[in-house]
Protein 1
Amino acid sequence: MTTRRDYLALSAAAGLALAASNARAVEKAKRPLRILILGGTGFIGPHEVRYALARGHQVTIFNRGRQKEDWPGPVEELLGDRNTGDLKALEGREWDVCIDNPTTLPFWVRDAGRVLKGKVKRYVFISTISVYAANDTPADETAAMMAYKGADPMAETAQTVAKDPALYGELKAVSEAEARRQFGEAATVVIRPGLIVGPGDETDRFSYWPVRLANPGGRWGPDVLAPGDGSDPVQFIDARDLAEWIVRMAEGGPAGTYNGTGPARQILMRDFLKGVATGVRADPKYVWVPTKWLEDRKVEAWSDLPVWIPGQGETAGFHHRSIVRALKAGLTFRPLTVTAADTWAWFQTLPADRQAKLRSGLKPEREAALLAEWAAAKT
């Protein structure tokens, strides 16, 4: 399986012309910082490291060392394992800021605090938009959060979360509170990303649409099943936009909590598909199928039809999270067409067997069957 690390090497060989033509000039930061990144080799981590280096910062990453990267500049790599509490490599060291990328488990934050409290001036915790208790109405960062229902949140492990995915949002909420307790409100930045997309995402939760609309090899039919009537809003953020903003926030953005999703202005599902199609130079024909009809046939939003969530009922506010605070704090976005084109170009660098097995979205045979049934129902 091609990893995100492989993408970073393959992308250069693949010659992503559109990405290069839209590359942004990176200005040096006003003051170089010593930045510690917990993680650094996942989806957003490598983008953070590269952007921080381009900004002139000194970068240290801390992880288990299982995934190596070729960095464009000097990066100090410290080894340890937060699952076992092995943070010895961090002891006795100081940094200006710590960016905590991968934490779901509250005891990871607690242990980091024990080692880094007083040793970093700022702590940036990457949470999730899944911490909110309800998704039925539009809301901002002050909305009620999920409540952890177990006994001792510090006793939860990766294994228990894997068995009960519902714990993910609850434990992220506890981890946020622990971050503030360990490092203080004035020194803590909490960023709650929405759906993170772009080249290198192995979940295909966004990739499905560039691939489906480009329709390589004619795997799908000429008609594209599209959910609802096109009026449902969608929110997402390119991993590169998120990573770059995180670094800028680490440089001195105001402490507090921010929803980290986009785009800057509300986009509806019909506009989303149009932008993706433009990015991959496709001109598909859409067949819009009512939400209720899809639900009756167990067609799942988010997984069978990625990105999309019904804009009514209990999910009416899911893609309506306010990003006013983030925009004021400097969050910016590259065009959807660029994200779609880059994702499609990356996907084509993957091995053939991986390209044949999308991890999200409708399989061609199922889409064809649903479209046939819908056409018959209308006659």
Protein 2
Amino acid sequence: MEAKVLSTAGKEVRTISLSDDVFAREVSEGSIYHAIRNELANARVGTASTKTRGFVRYSGRKPWRQKGTGRARAGSRRSPIWVGGGTTFGPQPRDYSYRLPRKVKRLAFESILTQKAQDGSLTVVEDFTVESGKTRDMAALLGTLTDKKRVVLIMKDDDEMVKRAARNIPWLRFLNYGRLRAHDLYYAQQVIVMESAASALGDFYSK
């Protein structure tokens, strides 16, 4: 497919040929769901913890004798039915992460990029840098390319000056073409792809 390449001033300068395997394929909504679910699960800390009756600190003595008191039988103050006792079936520390098949994850990225290209929320811009490394200059540059408030910038190389200028912009996420995140891409209102990254995406996902 053909796409316009914009300058940092927002003007069309040329066209670029994008890989149909990445930007014009059949969308798989199932793979998108699984990729986002996998990322959210892998990000969970899993440190929630409750005390069972074995961890509650109380004396082990029997509260009162078994018979003759008129009260219900009781063997321990650590019982879950007592106030201050242990918790039954409460959460324990665990690892929520799991591995998603590589082909499913690749299909998800291709499907999301195709969706963004189809609905017009994907923009290819010529490669740029921010020499000053200032957030003000980065925000001004992005202002000429989009008016959205949830933007993803895809780069080919990790430009330290761009990352320095962009890290304090709360509505901007920057990704490397080889380390995409399905959650950020899917929920972005605008995806800005540098020209070199657009070509690299076609080569990377067509392997």
